[in-house]
């Protein structure tokens, strides 16, 4: 028998990081939610505007809270199911400290406006490189641990862990291919339609392989442990695993239904999204059926309460997802708060509650004493559940209100609510209720922090646990009647890794390669020209301020949208957009045809005080744009980068660019002067106005 030790310190460290960053991420989320009711809560500070802190909230919750929660369970469960210590403690420590450093960097850089604007992948190129290095180092550590195991077969939880690491590495690298022009600025190598496809191939599967499959692995380990029952069906776990990872990767295009994405890609995404319900619910049933004969424990054990609600929320979200991918449902829900509700059923219910259950189960074992207060944990469960209800129901309601008001016509055939603000003001009470729900959920989280803190104080950390097991070569044997999956996969971690990579790569390749190579997928439009240097600078300001968070630039071919915003969007209009700015939520109106709709003075006044042009607006003031000087020292580098990416600026144009920029600045300055507005020509607001006035005008030519 070999004697070895499990390291609990790395588990403790990741657990503390989970709690700390969870608190920060939820506080930022609550602030963002309340800003939609009280816009002045940004205190006129650029780094506290909704459009900058919303990406901070999503990154903090996904990668800091859920990510650290995954790593907590990973470093506890992997050594125990493989009966061996983690292969490299050095890589484990590197993983921990480097990951926290990346999170800290994100917390600083995103509010400062350093963003790629690619949703769930907003971090700039230095962080992208760091994430890839840290992620691959953790993957190597887990694979080597699996190779050095002291059990014959690799348990289901480890399959999900490995597939998650492999797939996220692939998604991150492909989506993050960008051309740097400075230390914290880059342009996506993809443009327009291709960029949107790659982004939502990544965006949907970041949800799949960062928020879903890792936590399914945790479910397969911690639920049987908490219930003291074996998993209901091992064969079902095999079907669940392979069907899920193969089908999930195809579903990204359902985020782009009715857009300028080629119709065949939209249909493909819909078909595979609908099929996803089978493996998703197979996993849910495997979890819930594990509790057969143990439901009496659920009444008494707070850990099981959290886990049961988590698995139920997973089932709800994975039923709703395929339904939302149906075109008739998507036409109602897309761009509305229905999607916000859908996402938070998964985030608050599935990820949040499963994390809470795991922490409540772990801390008494890490600190060798019972949980400090079971009553407090039960209070957390009920107030957290109430928080989810108060959050999601108003958001579902808001989604229906938005879609109904956007699409309603009078008997005379006119839009019943032509002013977009009528929708916004109607939603304020529902946004307030969402804030109440978030407050309740956060209150429960604070109670958990106190409970776990007191558990740790009353106990003493068990830094290592000693275990014994026979070496693998002493127990290795093969049975002639052995099930094929055990022989081909559960004994061979490298084969499992390679087959997982193949399973997830197929869908992405089939969707992306034709879109990149077949020209008919993106028909060109002769009148669409590259942005002028000033418009390019203005577009970068638009990206920096996170305008895509609240505004779309994609008009769908619906009568209601064409009447409200103008001609529907064509794929050839976006060929020079690095990256695209299609957006995914309409808190404000679509902007793709905003060019020429209002005079320059309207945009100037609107950015200075939105309510002066749009009474009742919940958009914050952007007064700093009127004061900040435009940095034109970057113009040459930006034009060169665009030339490298295939934008047809004339050779040597970079040397003429700033002269053209200054000329266009003066023209806008003069128009503003004629409207009674005196401003210097070199202000950021001038560049933003130039970009806004360009939007959607090429097709009019």
TrEMBL record:
Pathway: Energy metabolism; oxidative phosphorylation
Cofactor field: heme b; Cu(2+)
Subcellular localization, as worded in the UniProt entry: Cell membrane
Assigned keywords, A-Z: Cell membrane, Copper, Electron transport, Heme, Iron, Membrane, Metal-binding, Respiratory chain, Translocase, Transmembrane, Transmembrane helix, Transport
Residue ranges of every copy of the Cytochrome oxidase subunit I profile domain listed in the record: 14-517
Main location: membrane
Uppermost EC category: translocase
Domain of life from the UniProt record: Bacteria
Protein name: cytochrome-c oxidase
Organism for this UniProt entry: Dyadobacter beijingensis
Organism lineage string: Bacteria, Pseudomonadati, Bacteroidota, Cytophagia, Cytophagales
